[in-house]
Amino acid sequence: MDNRSLGHVPTPPEIVQAMVALTAPLPASRCRVLEPACGDAPLLRAFRAAYGAGHALVGVELRPPATCPPDARIHAADFLLWRTDERFEVVLGNPPYGIVGDAAHYPIHALRERKADYKRACHTWRGKYNLYGAFLERAVRLLAPSGRLVFITPATWLVLDDFRLLRGFLAARGRLEVFAVGRVFPRVNVSAVILRFTAGAQGLALYDWRGCVGAPRLCRDQPRYDGDLIRFETAATQAWERSGAPLGEAFHIRFAARSTEFRASGLTRPAPDAGDVPVLTGRNLAAGAIDYAACYSGLWMRREDAHQLRAFYAEPHLVVGHTKGARLVCAVDWQCYPWREEYHLLPKAGCPADWARLEAYLNSAAVQRHLQAMYRDLTPHMTRTMLARVPLPQG
Ligand SMILES: C[S@@+](CC[C@H](N)C(=O)[O-])C[C@H]1O[C@@H](n2cnc3c(N)ncnc32)[C@H](O)[C@@H]1O
Q1: Domain residue extents for the chain
Q2: How far apart are CA 166 and CA 171, in angstroms?
């Protein structure tokens, strides 16, 4: 098993220091301290350097290091399946990130035969769950009462739907303090957050702490938290969201038919017959414009057959990009082409929508500004939930 297939990305030393500092004040004078997926245990080493030798240090690692930190016990085990009756006052971690699956598509493939066991062990597992979500759940379950966890993970759990159960799980068990630190891993294109979680407490605080430089800036502090999306809300973004009914109340947000469905349909060809149109993808979509000529999907078909894949292809409707970041890009498909990607808005009541007006509004600078303010770089792409919460234009 090579390092990459197990998601080994060492924690930069300044982040290690910042994380250890966040364990203060320590929940006990003598702490049991755990580092899951510890690699060569940089967090245990730094904890010992900061707080002295009077604590019990435990690491868990699939491939234990050749040299252990002094006084530490390192268990050679799969943390997600590790059973122990011990509970810990402090848990520090940089878990592996990635989807467990096949090597061609997903980074963490070395453990794919254990996926079914992981799912059984982890109640928050949903969809193509990212391994770090499972580590967070398992680590929180090992906290002693009032214990404190400090984990660095990608920021995606704050907003993606796959982590809805995880957010609810955390909200029910303790207080979350989230520090958005940005892209702190060299050569890894991941926007990260540090979570400080205190078992048995309540509420949510969100801090901006780019690169862990200077003092963290408090952006949001609430005494109660129910597991909703964690975003950079301000009075202005809250007022904007309340300014109209959420888009998701008035429209169904459907996803296009998948490549496999197109292939299985027998309706497509790799080269066009006379009268065929290209199956469109996100590359055909720009703000307020659709390129109906270029074929990026490599698939052609008769436009009249498109409704067999999705009935809504046959009606003019708004297509919204599954775009990177918090950018909203949309255009009305007046010509009713087949699509292999993107979100498709359909009026719930079945009554015709003012598509042109909605298109202009959703592409407007004001909408982009609010989305950017709330989601910054927390999300790798526009999600259905983000879109559903955009307020409709008034009047
Ligand atoms: C992101 S690295 C972090 C290492 C170290 N904690 C650090 O901060 O530098 C993740 C580590 O998790 C280990 N690992 C991956 N899957 C694991 C599992 N299921 N159980 C235990 N360790 C695992 C990898 O071998 C790797 O050393």
Answers
A1: 4-230, 241-388
A2: 8
Owner of token pair 């909203």? 328
Catalytic residue check, 129? no
Give CA–CA dist 308/290, Å, rounded: 22
Distance CA 163, CA 127 (A): 9
For 264, other C-beta atoms within 10 Å of its C-beta total: 12
* 277 burial via Cβ count (<10 Å: 0-12, 13-18, 19+): buried
pLDDT digit string, tens, across residues 147-183: 999 999 999 999 999 999 999 999 999 999 999 999 9
Q: Quote the pLDDT of residue 73.
A: 94
Judge residue 221's burial from the number of C-beta atoms within 10 Å of its C-beta, 0-12 exposed, 13-18 middle, 19 or more buried. exposed
What average pLDDT does the structure give for the chain? 93
- Whole-angstrom distance, CA of residue 207 vs CA of residue 221: 9
Class of domain 4-230: alpha beta
Neighbours of 305 (CB within 10 A): 16
Distance of CA 160 to the CA centre of its chain: 4
Active site residue 179: no
Whether 296 is catalytic is no
Instruction: Report which protein residue has its CA nearest ligand 1's atom 16.
Output: 6
pLDDT tens figures, 320-355: 998 887 899 999 999 999 999 999 999 998 677 899
Question: In the chain, which residue ranges form alpha helices assigned H by DSSP?
Answer: 13-21, 42-51, 115-121, 131-141, 164-173, 235-242, 247-250, 259-265, 355-362, 365-375, 384-388
CATH code matching the domain that covers 241-388, chosen among 3.50.50.60, 3.30.460.10, 3.40.1090.10, 3.90.220.10: 3.90.220.10
Instruction: Confirm or reject: Cβ of 184 under 6 Å from ligand 1.
Output: no
Active-site residue, 88 included:
no
Residue to probe by mutation, ligand 1, list 5, 8, 75, 81, most atoms within 8 Å of CB: 8
CA of 91 to the centre of ligand 1 (A): 14
Determine the distance separating the centroid of ligand 1 and the alpha carbon of 386, expressed in angstroms: 32
Cα distances (Å, whole numbers) of residue 278 to 112, 137, 234, 340? 37, 45, 43, 10
Give distance in angstroms: CA of 22 to centre of ligand 1: 21
Q: Assess contact for 374 and 231: CB atoms under 8 A.
A: yes
